[in-house]
Specification:
0% strand, 15 helices, 436 residues, mainly alpha
């Protein structure tokens, strides 16, 4: 296989497609958040976010994180011109995704009452959980579909579908809220929109596979990849554990823990700050999604010097974008919160500033996870994530009780600093060890 060429240009072209889609999708999502926050008020908005957070946590806890495995092995088999194994890997990916979605749904339904009573402190909220749990059936399969589109460089298609998904959500959620349906109406809008767009996504995946002569993947023989099951299983096991660990270091567990310790209003304020600071995340997520298939191609070709240059150049280019954005958010935090979300959310201003800086720090090493995976160091990534997750949870437990939502933001900042510092050391060590 020849060494990849023009990779920086390809990365940013693919990222540009994704960013264009995410920018539009992010605009719709941001407007949806504003509408929900203004119509529902701080307390109900906070409760809605806790319901969404709990279902998202169920998705991450039981999702086997197939998309990363799918990108690696579908891409590897396709690069080796082995169409039969490619079909088998596609089938395996969907089977695992649908199975994990079913498990997540059952667990969410069974635990809804306990969570409502003892975590959310809202005895009737279990009905909301039941409704939104329906989305678990489709959220998992969505990831494999997007993985397939990534492998075949259909980043423009992903951008269009993501934009459409958020647009449909905005329309339906807004309509239900304006009709006075409250939290339940917002959840109906979210679930219905997900079912609509998953159908569209599957049609586009089928078309893509048809172009490649892979449409009959459903009847493929899984025995064709039996010889690689141990390797695939090890890779999948580590990425699955990472998905579970991510629950401990993402906004969802932060909100759940904040809600348990400080109440719905604290969650509402934190979520507004998190939503505004998330602009930087949307920029970086496009690169994170686009870079992994490219890094796999580098390591497959043993192009390690290109691998390192690729990461260095992409980080420099990224910082040229996200540093100015962060500065603007920090300086204009107060008017942003007041005029967009309303005066009742003004207590979240300093939280927004802290989170914006924390997100910036964490994104200096956006490449660490896909980089370690591409290098075949999934186990190292898992240990790294376990340690940083424990640090984050420890900081949350120490800082949230005395400082509420501001303490949650400070905990995330501490987590970001420690994680980024460790990432550079670990990556440098294994580059020298494996290729020094």
């Amino acid at each position: 296989m020849p060494k990849p060429s023009g990779s920086q240009r390809k990365l940013f072209l693919n990222a540009a497609y994704l960013f264009g889609g995410k920018a539009a999708a992010g605009g719709f999502a941001a407007l949806q958040t504003v509408i929900m926050a203004r119509i529902l008020g701080v307390s109900d908005f906070g409760l809605l976010q806790l319901v969404i957070a709990y279902i998202a946590m169920m998705n991450q806890l039981f999702d086997v994180r197939v998309w990363e495995t799918a990108v690696k092995y579908i891409g590897t088999y396709w690069s080796a011109h082995d169409a039969d194994k490619t079909r088998a890997m596609i089938k395996l990916s969907y089977l695992l995704d649908v199975g994990s979605g079913a498990v997540s749904f059952v667990i969410a339904i069974l635990t809804a009452k306990l969570i409502s009573d003892y975590v959310l402190h809202e005895p009737g909220a279990y009905v909301y959980i039941w409704v939104f749990a329906l989305s678990l059936f489709i959220e998992t399969a969505k990831l494999t579909s997007d993985a397939i589109l990534r492998v075949f460089d259909k980043f423009g298609v992903i951008a269009v579908v993501n934009t459409l998904e958020n647009f449909v959500q905005l329309i339906l959620v807004s309509a239900f809220l304006l009709l006075g349906k409250g939290i339940m109406g917002a959840l109906y809008g979210l679930v219905i929109s997900k079912f609509i767009t998953v159908f569209i996504r599957m049609v586009l995946v089928d078309r893509t596979l048809g172009e490649k002569g892979l449409r009959n993947w459903l009847v493929s023989d899984l025995g064709l990849i039996r010889g690689e099951w141990r390797e695939i299983g090890w890779f999948l096991g580590n990425t699955s554990l990472m998905a579970t660990l991510k629950v401990g270091s993402d906004k969802y567990l932060g909100m759940m823990l904040l809600g348990y310790l400080a109440g719905n209003e604290a969650v509402g304020l934190y979520r507004v700050a998190n939503s505004a600071s998330g602009i930087v995340n949307r920029i970086v997520d496009t690169l994170n999604e686009a870079i992994f298939p490219e890094l796999v191609r580098f390591t497959s070709a043993s192009a390690i010097e290109e691998f390192k240059k690729y990461i260095k150049a992409s980080t420099k280019n990224l910082l040229k974008i996200i540093v100015p954005v962060t500065v603007v958010i920090v300086l204009l935090a107060e008017p942003l919160v007041e005029y967009i979300f309303g005066t009742e959310y003004l207590p979240a201003v300093n939280t927004l500033r802290v989170l914006a800086v924390a997100v910036l720090v964490s994104r200096f090493t956006y490449w660490i996870s896909p980089g370690l995976l591409a290098m075949g160091r999934s186990g190292v990534r898992t240990v790294f994530s376990i340690f940083t997750t424990v640090v984050y949870l420890g900081l949350m437990l120490v800082l949230v009780p005395p400082y509420s939502y501001e303490g949650a933001a400070l905990a995330f900042l501490g987590f970001a600093v420690i994680k980024s510092g460790m990432a550079y050391g670990i990556f440098g060590y294994y580059i020298k060890k494996d290729h020094g």
